[in-house]
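Ticket #261: bound-state structure for nicotinamide-adenine-dinucleotide.
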Amino acid sequence: MARLTTLSRSVRDKVVLITGAGSGMGRATAHLFADEGAHVAVTDLVAARVEAVVGEIVAAGATARGWVLDVAKPSEVKRVVDEVATGFGGIDILINNAGIALPTPAVASDEEFEAGWGRTIDVNLSAHIRMVRAALPHLRAGGDGRVVNIASTEGIVATAGLPAYTATKHGVIGLTKSLAVELGRSGITVNCVCPGPILTDMTSGIPTEARDEYARRRVALRRYGTPEEVAHMTLSLALPAASFTNGAVLVVDGGMWIRHT
Ligand code: NAD
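RESOLUTION: The complex was predicted; output attached.
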């Protein structure tokens, strides 16, 4: 049948680099892009996780290669981005997903506060711009590069005891808007996903009863989301057809933050 529209909803043969792809939403995103025929660069701090996710994708008959990458180390960021581009012949899509949630209450000891604050800024915020800067020549080359930053509903509202996490996620939203404005002229779109409560390693330490109670009281859909539900939004923002979506902040939270009572 002849098509009636022109824009593609396929990422087949696109090269996607995902940070923190060894677990949770990063892993689900790697799986989804692989299912859709993309060539996936799986990067993560933890080597065993990289190996496992690459193994899962390759066993399913799709294409992936792995790199151990601490996004908080600028020299590693440059090296890995260049190796991915050389290995796959370019980079079309960058997903800045790696993130940590360290407690940094204002009343913490100086030692605890300084350690948590610095590391959180490095991983959750500075790394995003460093990844973009390193990938820029490659994203530019195709004329339709895509960047998707994973922020959080903590970028819109706040939870007590997490000032570093909340500040960095607000920062990721600001960074997304700034880069969207600056890079638009190169045909690169920069968008941001704000997941709400999602079942991953990051939330697995919360007791089940506390999670259930929170979901019942706060989330319109009355449950936590799955990593795959977020991955689908991320993929949507990376499609060739998303060519006029730029600087957007998309919330995937089951109707959590808009809920008044
Ligand atoms: P997760 O802990 O399951 O996965 C995070 C991955 O990032 C891990 O594999 C970890 O090894 C990796 N990582 C940590 N530090 C890194 C570093 N310095 N360099 C490279 N990789 C590193 O967590 P998740 O829930 O899948 O989180 C993914 C993203 O989603 C994060 O940015 C997080 O802040 C955000 N988020 C999570 C939730 C949630 O409820 N789980 C909600 C909103 C936003």
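RESOLUTION NOTES: Residues 110-142 form the longest helix (33 residues).
TICKET STATUS: resolved
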